[in-house]
Design a protein that fits this description.
heterodimer; A: about 525 residues; two-stranded antiparallel sheet; 24 helices; B: about 425 residues; alpha+beta; four-stranded antiparallel beta sheet; 14 helices; globular
């Protein structure tokens, strides 16, 4: 076992390595140099004085935020001798499964490519470039012929793969019964039970004020809401990431949400960030990728048909097309179990010098992918800021929802958590649904993969995502899914088919997320 | 009795204790359309308890040219009585000129501001019919010529009927018939509308007036924002679909997809604006909208024939510009009660149910209520405060009793209300 001290020094070394050479580093240096002109800085106590200066001018806080961000995103190193695959995914069978899943996706993409004789990437002719530049703010008005394109995969295809996951070292010869797991996921991962969840999510308890419950019309604002807003404004004034993350566990006031999320994700929209976005944009203009058509199709099929997100269609293209070309996203593959697909320049198949990652960011979009971006359009209207927020949300959270890993926030664990919660606390319902061929996960899977985007009302979804950011974990998605089933249990007990069960759970738009979570975690008799 | 199908009929049919009257039968409550009103109101005797859903001369508010006249007159009055600042609160209506009678005044204004866009709207028609935009005088000179010959023709045919309107006083029905054919208004087009996702939208808000003298008005919490299907640009003046946000017009646009639904509930809009501009600016915006409702009703207060049998549900069309200033586009006395989706159907049913609760043919209310279901009382011969009982003196911080775009928990409120009322009655 790694002793805590060397673990800490490894972490520190890693963070220092990552922050060195970053723009924050050069800014801090510049600030320190500038401060030399100030009268408070004396030669005798140079180091101390500069440190004090950085503290009072808010730069130390920025450094703190950056360090906090790194801690949040990167997992702690397991062991100095562990190979890099272990940071991606410690369990070998999971790595293997992810690998074969990726091969399947890539095969599907390549075959579509050959069928339609469209290259994976090509440079646009000058006239097309000019046209696209003119239409940049209204790409939604384009009506390209997308009938021949199909999404590379849909969530239900992914579910089939997850259902077939098995740990080769685990012998489970018994028939499924109440003594073991009755659900679709049959891998022995450790998931939390309700007492553990209650501890983890203690701020959602009955005695703590929440936005989404204690700001309703019946409750006078003096009880909770006004004070909560005041605290939120203070947090923003202090510009403290860690405090913000703690604060949003009780929900964000609508007016402060955009800034609070940006603070937690450590996004400040510096000039170099805007420049980076512009570079990506010019990349989009110059080159056409096959995945662009997949993105178009996805947006047209999902977000454009949504009653509330259809308005943001143009923004979605502006974000997703740039996203596919952003090679900085490749960094997240060091801690993701996935590996970016490789493609080869025409005629040089197999020759490593001619291998490129395809798409450049290594992420192949699937059916419903654009729904990750749509709710963010409610908060951010400037394209480069919207883009950065989405990218950060993706490399912190969303990537775990469509890759096979043993991480507690990975989709496999979430599915298992959901099924376990349901089986343990609503056994009758679970058994009944299983008997009629309506395994609960078949219905809730799509909710979790999309982080409930497009299923809940927007304000409720944002309250849910507040908590994802606050707890830096996606487990709340599984808890909510179970809470929804618990809420509609009476109706579900009466259905006799999968289709009927789907119908009972088809419309979640009237649900209030926080009361459901509170009741399920804190007010149900266990 | 009900002249219209759809949510109105459904709500009335399902109301406990109510029965639909057959054709020749006597009725206690009538939901009619305005043409019936015009033909029959004057010859119908109504007993004390009878209620009808329109005021005799609602067109003072709903006809664009009359509304303009009434607002202009009211503004002058306010300036005389209370000064320029107070009168400026009436500046929520874009500069409008009646055509062809105010043609010369219009040309004067047109020449003062060259290059801006104007919109021509027929006064009597709805759903976006007959509307067009123009920037050059030439565009309407031709139009005027055509109209003039038509007008002259009609003038000769009708002998010595008055074609143009008197400045005030009640207009006769024949005069209105003629103006129905001919009169348009030319209005300054709002060139900087607030855009969401590059699209223009307008708001539909519902205001219920149960009496004009004294003025008693209720504001419904729900409403919706209607989006144009295409991106806004001033380059395509001829493209009706870009500029007109009526659902009726959008439905015929080539890329209209009924599944898409181009409406947002006002709650959604309020959330979006709060996230973008902060709660303070949004409060100011909604307070400005309250001002529009009240001032517009006050401007016709003295002109509308007050009749205790009448009540009216108005649909206000509001446009917000990029400085977050609301503009009044028009007032509909017969807002569309046809539903375009399930959510829409529910909204309209609830709206109508609550309207019937307020009209209170069952005689359940005490008259002191400040809220019934989704309706908040916003004017009771004076502003209504959120705090305190109705009629109590206003003290300290006055907060208007309006909740447009706020949470609408009408079911609970109604349950509580009726429970209290029946308890009071048995006591």
């Amino acid at each position: 076992m790694l002793d805590p001290d060397s673990g800490l020094s490894l972490t520190i070394a890693r963070i220092v390595r990552r922050l060195q050479g970053s723009s924050l580093h050069s800014q801090l240096e510049r600030q320190a140099r500038v401060s030399l002109h100030k009268p408070e800085i004396k030669l005798e106590s140079l180091k101390e004085d500069i440190k004090d200066f950085l503290k009072t001018s808010g730069w130390e806080k920025k450094l703190q935020n950056a360090v906090y961000s790194e801690l949040n995103v990167f997992p702690s190193p397991c062991h100095p001798a562990a190979p890099p695959e272990h940071m991606k995914e410690p369990l070998a069978y999971m790595r293997k499964a992810q690998g074969s899943w990726e091969k399947r996706i890539l095969k599907s993409l390549n075959s579509m490519c050959t069928e339609l004789s469209i290259p994976l990437a090509q440079k646009r002719p000058a006239s097309e470039q000019k046209e696209l530049l003119n239409k940049w703010n209204e790409m939604g008005t384009d009506e390209p012929d997308l009938s021949l394109f199909r999404p590379v995969y849909a969530p239900k295809d992914f579910l089939e793969v997850l259902m077939n996951l098995r740990n080769p070292n685990y012998e489970n010869g018994e028939q499924p019964s109440f003594r073991n797991h009755l659900g679709l996921i049959q891998v022995p991962l450790k998931v939390k039970d309700i007492p553990e969840l209650k501890e983890d999510f203690s701020e959602l308890g009955l005695n703590t004020g929440q936005l989404g419950i204690d700001d309703s019309a019946q409750v006078p604002p003096e009880f909770f809401e006004n004070e909560h807003v005041r605290v939120g404004q203070k947090v923003l004034a202090e510009q403290d990431s860690a405090a913000a993350q703690q604060y949003v566990r009780q929900g964000c006031p609508t007016a402060l949400r955009a800034d609070l999320w940006a603070l937690i994700l450590n996004i400040s929209n510096q000039p170099e960030d805007i420049l980076y976005y512009e570079q990506l944009k010019s990349n989009v203009i110059q080159y056409d990728l096959l995945v662009d058509s997949l993105i178009y199709k996805d947006v047209k099929l999902t977000a454009s048909n949504d009653d509330y997100y259809f308005v943001f269609e143009d923004y979605l293209y502006q974000v997703l097309l740039c996203f596919s070309r952003d090679t900085s996203v490749l960094e997240h593959f060091t801690y993701s179990s996935a590996t970016p697909p490789k493609s080869y320049i025409r005629g040089k198949l197999g020759i490593e010098e001619y291998a490129v990652f395809y798409p450049p960011n290594g992420v192949i979009p699937f059916h419903g992918f654009s729904m990750y971006v749509a709710p963010l359009c409610f908060l951010y209207h400037e394209p480069s800021k919207l883009y950065q927020i989405f990218r950060e949300m993706y490399v912190r959270f969303f990537f775990r929802l469509h890759s096979i890993s043993s991480h507690p926030s990975g989709i496999v664990s979430l599915c298992l958590l959901f099924e376990t919660l349901l089986q343990t606390h609503l056994p009758q319902l679970f058994y009944h649904l299983r008997e009629i061929g309506a395994q609960p996960l078949r219905i809730s899977f799509k909710w979790m993969v999309r982080a409930f985007s497009g299923y809940l009302a927007t304000d409720q979804l944002l309250l849910l995502w507040d908590r994802i950011l606050g707890y830096n974990s996606l487990e709340i998605l599984a808890v909510l899914a179970a809470a929804v089933f618990a809420f509609r249990a009476v109706n579900l007990m009466e259905v006799t088919s999968l289709a009927a069960a789907e119908a009972v759970l088809a419309d979640l738009s009237t649900l209030k997320v926080m009361p459901l979570l509170q009741i399920f975690l804190f007010a149900t008799v266990t | 009795k009900c002249g219209l199908a759809g949510p109105v009929l459904d709500v009335l049919s399902r109301r406990p204790g109510w029965q639909q009257a057959k054709d020749e039968e006597e009725w206690d409550f009538l939901w009619c359309d305005v043409s019936w009103l015009r033909e029959n109101f004057d010859h119908t005797y109504m007993e004390e308890h009878v209620r009808i859903c329109h005021f005799r001369n609602h067109y003072e508010l709903s006809r664009k040219n009359y509304l303009v006249k009434n607002l202009k007159r009211f503004r002058k009055q306010l300036e005389r009585e209370a000064g320029k600042l107070e009168a400026a609160k009436c500046d929520f209506f874009p500069k409008t000129f009646e055509m062809p009678s105010e043609y010369h005044l219009f040309v004067e204004e047109f020449r003062k501001k060259p290059g801006i866009t104007w919109i021509m709207k027929p006064v009597g028609r709805s759903q976006g019919k007959g509307i067009f935009l123009f920037r050059k005088l030439k565009d309407i000179i031709d139009w005027k010529k055509v109209r003039k010959t038509m007008v002259e023709k009609q003038f000769l045919e009708r002998g010595n009927c008055m074609l143009f309107l008197s400045q005030d006083g009640v207009r006769t029905d024949e005069q209105k018939d003629e103006t129905q054919i001919e009169t348009y208004v030319a209005q300054q087009y709002i060139e900087n509308p607030y855009l969401i996702g590059g699209r223009k939208f307008d708001l539909r808000v519902y205001v219920l007036v149960t009496s004009y003298i004294p003025l008693k008005a209720w504001l419904y919490r729900d409403g919706f924002a209607r989006f144009s299907n295409t991106r806004f640009t001033l380059n395509s003046i001829d493209d009706h679909y870009v500029h007109l946000t009526n659902v009726a017009v959008q439905k015929t646009a080539p890329d209209y997809d009924p599944e898409k639904g181009c409406k947002w509930m006002i709650q959604q809009l309020r959330q979006y604006l709060t996230a973008k501009h902060g709660a303070g600016s949004v409060e100011v915006l909604f307070a400005d909208m309250d001002n529009i409702f009240i001032k517009s009703l006050q401007s016709v207060q003295k002109v509308i024939i007050s009749d205790k049998h009448c009540f009216e549900l108005y649909g206000y069309d509001i446009l917000i510009d990029r400085d977050l200033k609301p503009w009044l586009l028009e007032v509909n006395a017969s807002p569309s009660l046809v539903a375009s989706s399930q959510e829409d159907y529910e909204l309209k049913c609830h709206l109508l149910k609550d309207t019937l609760h307020i009209v209170d043919m069952e005689g359940r209310l005490t008259g002191k209520e400040k809220r019934v279901g989704g309706f908040d009382l916003i004017w009771n011969d004076g502003p209504v405060s959120r705090e305190g009982n109705l009629g109590a003196p206003v003290n300290g911080n006055f907060m208007a009793n309006t909740h447009l775009g706020c949470y609408n928990d009408r079911k609970q409120q109604l349950k509580q209300l009726f429970r209290t009322l029946s308890a009071q009655q048995t006591a």
